[in-house]
Amino acid sequence: MPAIPDNLLAATMGRKLATVRRAQGLSQHQLAQDICSQPMISHIENGTYIPNAILLAKLCERLNMPLEQALLSHYPEIDQQPEFNQQIKQLCNAHDYRGMLDYLDTTGLAEHLELATDLQTYYYYHGIAVFQELHTTTDSLRELQMALDYTFTPRQQVLTPTEILILSSISFIKSTPHTNQTDFEHVLAIVNTGRFTHYDENINILFYLYSLALYQDHHFQKAFAIANQGIDWLSNHDSHYMLADLFLLVAKTATALNDPQAATAASLKSDTLAEIFNQSRYHF
């Protein structure tokens, strides 16, 4: 098991808190007043100290910055639809797929969308909600393929992060016990060779879904390797999105591989991350 990148959390938090503090014209001393010491703020912003959940919440409150706004990932968004984007983000964070399906079916937004990328995003969310809530594989795959086809062509060499996200989701839904994972391997090869337009945190999901598919098919050694590759990927891109979930997968696979020491270490890290970032993890 590779070393757990403690500096990843500290660096990510520190940069974001420092950016918001400076934008509001506050000094480190003003941010720290009645909360902690100024040197502690300096350590946090420099990435040498990780605040606990209570301290982090107080700092975010002082900055008028919701904890999830400061620390959660970017979700695919529809252009000029801030209310929709915020509602979808909240439903995603709560894993409320029934609510997401109801919301998508009642907004009537799809009828007014013109950009291919916006329609792609809408049908991606709808396809995922159908799969998670109704468990209808055929309908979900049809909607996800429709979402992909808005921008993707079979001969396309360079993909957008949203296209990678959709292909990863399709690969997971299509995966069944005792089948090969050629679809996942194809997407992973695209990512490993840098054939994407730009980095976006949604690419992180590839590693989680691939490892989970392998875990569910009892390919524990490879699931362990892919989850740890994902952790390294996140560390290299200064991201924490899906990190708690990946560590949970490492813990599960390590348990299956009879490595209790690695399982305990990964489980503790997953719990810590979930508490710090106020995230609910996917349980399986």
UniProtKB/TrEMBL annotation:
Gene3D superfamilies: Tetratricopeptide repeat domain. Residues 17-70 form the HTH cro/C1-type domain. SUPFAM superfamilies: lambda repressor-like DNA-binding domains (SSF47413). PROSITE patterns: HTH_CROC1 (PS50943). Pfam families: HTH_3 (PF01381). One of its GO terms (molecular function) is DNA binding. PANTHER family: TRANSCRIPTIONAL ACTIVATOR (PTHR37038:SF14), TRANSCRIPTIONAL REGULATOR-RELATED (PTHR37038). This is XRE family transcriptional regulator.
